[in-house]
Amino acid sequence: MGCTKTIAILAALAGLQACTLTRTIVHNFADLDDHRIFANRVVPRSAQASPLRGLRHEPPFVAELRVPDETGTSWRLDDYLAHTRTAAFVVLHNDRVVLERYARGYDQHSLLNSFSIAKSVMSALVGIALAEGRIASLDAAVASVCPEFDGTPYGAVTVRELLTMTSGVADAPSLLPGRAEVYYGDDLRAVALNARAPSAPSRTAHSWRYSETDVQVLGFVLERAVGMPVSDYLAAKLWQPLGMESEALWALDREGGNEKTFCCLSARARDFARFGKLMRDGGRWNGRQLVPAAWAERAVLPGIDAHGHVHRHLWWTPHGGRGDFYAYGHNGQYLYVNPAARLVIVKFSETRHQDPVPMFRALADAVTAPTHLAEIDRLDAPLLAAR
Hints:
Blueprint: H1 2-16, H2 18-27, E1 40-43, E2 53-55, E3 66-68, E4 74-76, H3 77-83, E5 86-93, E6 96-102, E7 112-113, H4 117-131, H5 142-145, H6 159-163, H7 180-183, H8 188-193, H9 212-226, H10 230-239, E8 248-251, E9 265-267, H11 269-280, E10 284-285, E11 288-289, H12 293-296, E12 304-306, E13 309-312, E14 315-317, E15 325-329, E16 333-338, E17 343-349, H13 357-368, H14 370-378, E18 380-383
Antiparallel strand pairs: 1-8, 2-18, 3-4, 5-6, 5-17, 7-9, 8-9, 10-11, 12-13, 13-14, 15-16, 16-17
Helix pairs in contact: 4-9
């Protein structure tokens, strides 16, 4: 009898997940160009791109530059980028692109899948919605904004707990491997509604667990609170004011469905650099405070030590006390921000087997060395073409 019941449950789950299973089998691995396989909502580009300056040619010091990997091994920069399967690499100092590389079939016009860098974009949008009063407070419960979650494990979870990934809620049962149920799933609201209750009676910082579904539910809360799709809110509050040079695409769980707010915002590397510049400058852009300063500085919520780095405001802070921080995507996508060095680095790769923070820091030191800054100043050039 027990065996028969188990088989019946598995069969029901398999039926519910048939479309997701098919996507998982057909596409197998997540890729930088996965906007091609998903339905998407368009985030329109700005009518006029914000200017970025360039250099007449690459600074001479780059040719001899050596950078360390996470083991301390020294590499020529180009060799390191090739070894870590880098598809796009942009280094922005002040408002100048001082280094730009593309490889593996991608170029400056390519739309690149952010993977979990989208979580950091979501954090900025939630900070804006809180400042506008659209979300009542960090302690607002999910069900107070989205009544359909009343009585479910996520119903009593607060916005604060979603942002800190301390909901304690477990993922819904799935026959699919890893995160395939959310990445390839075609009904993310159902996934969240069917999540399992916390295994412990309290949700604290000690119950931190990296959770795609926490940020997906945060997306449902944001959408309901602002009264528009998350993509439209992104366009109005960030994409248009920042003067992004290209439209972005935010992947949906199905045609006309919900944004995958835990991932999957596809945009140009330079536009990700513009977002990094906004965060580097404390949420200000051309004299306007687009993101509240305390929020942009990640000073509202406590950090949680996880996997050797500190997780705060859906960003990561490496140890070492430099004030730098970064957004990270599943397969080697990084948006590194170093306010002290006035530096932003975009590195989109096709492998997760790396920790490029030592390289980022070495590059920040190299770019800001006085002799190298003098080289860069001599090479200053007109504005980069943006369309």
